[in-house]
Amino acid sequence: MADTQFKVENYLANSFIIVEGKKDANNFYIILKGKVKVAKENPVMAAEPFTVLGPGDFFGVVSCMSVHARIESAVALENVALISVEREKFGLLIQKNPAVAMKIIRFFSRQLREFDQAITNLTFKNVAAEEPSHLFNIGEYYVKKRIFNHATYAFQKYLQYLPEGEHRDNAIQRLQSLKAPLKSPAAVQQGGMTRRYKDNTMIFCEYEPGEELFIIQAGKVKITKIVNEEVLLAVLKAGDIFGEMAILDNKPRSASAITFGDVEVMAINKSNFETMVKSQPQLATRLIQLLSERIWTAYRQLENLIIRDPMGRIYDTLLIQIEKQKIRIEPKQYHNFEFGTKELINMVGLTPEKGDMYVVQLLEDKHFLLQEGKIICTDILELEKTVQFFRKKTAMERKREASKNM
Fold this sequence. Notes:
There is one protein chain. The protein is 44% helix and 22% strand. The two termini are 44 Å apart. The protein has a five-stranded antiparallel β-sheet with strand order 9-10-17-12-15. The protein contains 13 helices and 20 strands. The radius of gyration is 23 Å and the shape is globular. It has helices spanning 61-66, 90-96, 98-124, 135-144, 148-161, 168-177, 244-249, 270-279, 281-305, 310-324, 341-348, 352-364, 380-405; strands spanning 7-11, 16-18, 27-33, 36-39, 50-53, 58-59, 73-76, 80-86, 188-189, 194-197, 202-204, 212-218, 221-227, 229-236, 241-242, 256-259, 263-269, 335-336, 368-371, 374-377.
């Protein structure tokens, strides 16, 4: 594993290797020898307060590959030797050791699933467990909305995975009334793994078991989830990867993928996935970059949800938008958020009445103003400092509560 192309760094016991919040994280580490403790100042839900890692384990990948500030600190518990991998040498590492890429991808997929579940539970509360039996409810939702091609897909998949399910007869009746076959036709395939879909076609439905991930070759794909109503989670474009969670951890799809215009995708199944990672390091690099960005976003959402003060969550929501765009934070730097107070209240998940009260407070802050209905910050460094204040306040409150319960 140790290679002259990769630097080996030695740290003495009790020394810091990486520090939470530090920007310009251009590398990550693989442990060669010794033990390292990785911890966060204010642990989020679904994350361990700290983890102890040993030889073969890695840390610092998320911030390195997503090009964001460090989201954790790492301290040497004893004298340690570490391989330092720079971002631009990641493809080389995979070529030399594809097993490392698979280990990172599997670990990330598990962590992302846990984070997503925690976010869903905290924000949407009563969300159904991810089981194929819910495909029938998805079909019913689309019948009510008169989107019959999506309803057809969901009912056909319900019958495919649960041929003796409790809604079997109803699903058959629904398909007959829609004049649709009981089985879904196979996707149009051309040239092996390449598939083409027409506009507004469901590629897969939330709750159905997944066996493939997709790379968009041309066109756009909407990722949606039904939580009382259909929620648009993302619009993906050429080069983007989706559906990777199902193939990595054998769980049903957590969202639906629907074409937005005509689309061409490459489909990769479980059996050829590892081969692709080995033969195409750029695919593994792209996938790890994508998972790193998603984990960073999920982690920041969870960090936001543990801030007790709604005003703190409003400030932090604005800071997340700046961090997502990877804008370097400088003093007196001006930023137009390109959205108004109504969108901000929705992002934070406050009722309009409560939200308006906090918006008034925000606009009393001399660093914020409304211009043509858009929120403007006149100094994003001051915004970052304000968020740090609210985070510290939450951390102190949580520590006080923990010591009372001991």
